[in-house]
Task: structure prediction
Amino acid sequence: MEPPRLLYPLRTYLVTSGKGGESNVMAADWVTIASWEPFIVVVSISPKRYTSRLVASYGELVIGVPSCDLINDVWIAGSRSGPKKLSETKLKLTPSSRVNAPSIGNALANLECKVIDSRTYGDHTLFIAEVVSYNYRAEAYPSGKPSLKAEFLAHIARNEFTTFKPEVLKPTIL
Result:
């Protein structure tokens, strides 16, 4: 039995890997920051996933930040396997600046990463990767801070998603 999703909702990302005709994209919720300096992230991927094999082979990946308007593409990327699914999406794969894995031109942001380590725990492999370059839409990150008007996508359960209210809460004891 699957455990309850006690840590959800989680932000949802798109992970690209491979290159050329072998390029692939998958949806991933299990992405986090491990270090600011250097900028290191961790992505957890099941070894059963096609993307896991590509990331292990090429040693790089790109993390794309989708908005709510890409929800159908996120669903396809997360529920189907292999690069053939890309023809069913509106995702615009574009060349990255520092890695061979493509970026997503219609994402809010892309983080280009080189894998520096990996470890398998239970049924997933943690890919630890250094962010070597990134790009983002200025309107989604004015002054380098996320704008909630950008409608970042968050995953609640199997086929349920949400976004964040355009309201910022601050502690009253400041």
Summary: The CA atoms of residues 12 and 93 lie 18 Å apart. The longest strand covers residues 109-121.
